[in-house]
């Protein structure tokens, strides 16, 4: 094992068990020192005053502003976004550390309600921007280069023009947003509060899901049935959340004249529907040569006649069952980042040394992992639930990639830094690929190479095949909800219709697996987000192929792409690499990389 390259601050560390070492915790003081910090109160007071002043200064007047006056309005609006983003980042991150804490939940809800109330008078801004004539806006951009820098933001805002409602209705929907947020919080708090008993011991959902990667098949089976039991006990709540969230979306979409439930996501992602459908179709067509073929291999490795769902993420018999300490995980990822370019290592280092990562599994902590950009004048924070699995190392590499991307894009400012979701996964998946390739190059035996290849293929299948199956589930769920209220059995049936297709003939499905849709947070928090994972994986596979070919200046082009944030369309960002995601054949390149890895694994069996 390798040594720790950078110190973890003890003041921010949680003493880990099971050989994990000291796991870092967030230091949120860069946002605010506490929920009673005078700076936070001052920011809330400023927001209330500035939102009212902004409306008084500009409502009903945008079309008549000069280019310089319009720039002032844009910059003031951007400052409002930054201050409100800082407040909600602090409240949200603090809440995710302990979602079962009533005081933190109340604080987050109160902040959200205040900001919603303060910002309701600002709804006019995007509505009036969309009423400015194209010629007038083009002329203003030509007159003022500082204003022209915001053209991509205007373009994305104006893409919603056909779906814009009256000013009064837009304000009503803005105010109603806190109700939708309450359903999301109900989902989060329900999931975080669930307890599961496996082998006589209680675990939260993260600890229980972790059993599905346990080397002991009996433990995996016990955990799977316990997950099913607890999900089933709470299924009415989860079905109500999904029915309400999808119905709310259907109502808003109908009023906005959105042709499909997915349209809003495509618009916010700044991606054409036909590009997403080309990706979806390419992946579904590839199921037989990807997931079906790989799981048949895995069935043989595990010595099983039939695979059960609790075998999907089982470790391979030849894997080293030992856990990876936090120090070794950090060293592995940092070495890979530095080997690509020392600048990448420099950008990643503060995450480990300054309390920007919260890694430990703790009661009440939100499950999963994410990188939150906060605001451009602070820095991102990464959340993990680190249990020392090899996949946890890849998750660290993934989320750290997001963090590096967010740091680089911050110079674009609040309105231009946010990358559309389809490209937001680029740096994260690329960070995973760098880490994987570094580990593969260091493999000393055929067996080690096989384990690494199988692990990567499995991760890619989870990222591409599983996420597109999730996307199909959501498409079917939202379409069905437009016709009728859905019973839990209805939702279960939709879930199973995509699972069997994506996983293949190697699997049997236990009774109770039909409820496993219940714990996926993206379905509630970010409808149709999931295809961004597959988009990012396919894009990175193509991007990495360009890097592997030794293209001159790749590193500089890569950093330029990340620095661009949301200031460019995906066609502009990929052009320097000679790539075009709008070409239907583009996706076949990425899928072929996965297929070629399975080819190599099959060849090892001969």
UniProtKB/TrEMBL annotation:
Residues annotated as domain Peptidase M3A/M3B catalytic: 214-591
Pfam families with a match to the protein in the record: Peptidase_M3, Peptidase_M3_N
Cell cycle recorded as keyword: no
Record SUPFAM superfamilies: Metalloproteases ('zincins'), catalytic domain
UniProtKB keywords: Hydrolase, Metal-binding, Metalloprotease, Protease, Zinc
Region (Disordered): 1-20
Superkingdom of the source species: Bacteria
Gene Ontology molecular function: any one: metalloendopeptidase activity
Cofactor binding remark: Binds 1 zinc ion.
The protein's name: Oligoendopeptidase F
Species this protein is from: Shimia abyssi
């Amino acid at each position: 094992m390798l040594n720790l390259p950078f110190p973890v601050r003890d003041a921010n560390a949680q003493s880990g068990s099971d050989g994990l070492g000291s796991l870092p915790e967030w230091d949120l003081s860069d946002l605010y020192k506490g929920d009673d910090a005078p700076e936070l109160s001052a920011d809330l007071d400023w927001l209330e005053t500035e939102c009212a002043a902004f409306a008084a200064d500009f409502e009903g007047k945008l079309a008549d502003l000069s280019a310089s006056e319009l720039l002032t309005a844009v910059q003031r609006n951007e400052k409002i976004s930054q201050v409100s983003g800082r407040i909600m980042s602090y409240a949200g991150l603090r809440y995710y550390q302990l979602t079962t804490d009533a005081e933190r939940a109340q604080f987050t809800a109160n902040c959200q309600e205040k900001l919603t109330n303060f910002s309701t008078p600002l709804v006019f801004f995007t509505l009036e921007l969309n009423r400015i004539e194209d010629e007038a806006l083009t002329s203003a951009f030509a007159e003022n280069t500082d204003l022209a820098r915001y053209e991509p933001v205007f373009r994305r805002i104006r893409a919603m023009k056909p779906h814009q409602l009256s000013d009064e209705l837009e304000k009503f929907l803005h105010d109603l947003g806190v109700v939708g947020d309450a359903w999301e919080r109900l989902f989060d708090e329900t999931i975080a509060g669930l307890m599961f008993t496996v082998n006589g011991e209680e675990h939260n959902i993260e600890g229980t899901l972790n059993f599905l990667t346990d080397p002991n098949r009996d433990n995996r089976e016990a955990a799977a049935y316990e997950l099913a039991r607890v999900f089933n006990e709470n299924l009415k709540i989860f079905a109500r959340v999904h029915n309400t969230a999808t119905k709310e979306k259907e109502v808003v979409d109908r009023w906005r004249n959105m042709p499909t439930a997915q349209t809003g996501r495509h618009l916010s992602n700044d991606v054409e529907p036909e590009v997403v459908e080309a990706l979806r179709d390419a992946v579904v067509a590839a199921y037989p040569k990807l997931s079906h073929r790989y799981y048949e291999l895995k069935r043989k490795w595990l010595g099983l006649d039939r695979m059960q769902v609790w075998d999907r993420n089982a470790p391979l018999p030849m894997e080293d069952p030992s856990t990876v300490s936090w120090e070794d995980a950090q060293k592995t990822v940092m070495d890979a980042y530095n080997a690509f370019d020392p600048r990448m290592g420099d950008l990643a280092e503060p995450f480990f040394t300054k309390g920007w990562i919260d890694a430990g599994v703790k009661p009440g902590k939100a499950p999963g992992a994410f990188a939150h950009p906060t605001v451009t004048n602070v820095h991102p924070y990464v959340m993990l639930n680190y249990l020392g699995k090899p996949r946890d190392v890849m998750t660290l590499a993934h989320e750290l990639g997001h963090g590096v991307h967010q740091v680089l894009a911050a110079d674009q400012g609040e309105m231009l830094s946010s990358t559309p979701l389809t490209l937001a996964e680029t740096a994260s998946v690329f960070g995973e690929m760098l880490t994987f390739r570094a580990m593969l190059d260091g493999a000393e035996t055929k067996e080690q190479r096989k384990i690494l290849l199988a692990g990567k293929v499995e991760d890619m299948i989870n990222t591409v095949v599983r996420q597109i199956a999730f996307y199909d589930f959501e498409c079917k769920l939202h379409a069905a909800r437009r016709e009728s209220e859905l019973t839990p059995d209805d939702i279960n049936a939709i879930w199973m219709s995509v699972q069997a297709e994506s996983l293949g003939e190697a699997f049997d499905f236990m009774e109770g697996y039909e409820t496993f849709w219940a714990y996926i947070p993206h379905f509630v928090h970010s409808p149709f987000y999931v295809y961004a994972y597959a988009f990012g994986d396919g894009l990175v596979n193509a991007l990495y192929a360009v890097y592997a070919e030794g293209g001159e200046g790749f590193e500089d082009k890569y950093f330029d792409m990340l620095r661009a944030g949301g200031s460019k369309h995906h066609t502009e960002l990929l052009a320097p690499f000679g790539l075009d995601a709008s070409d239907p054949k583009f996706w076949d390149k990425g899928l072929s990389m996965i297929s070629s890895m399975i080819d190599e694994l099959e060849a090892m069996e001969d």
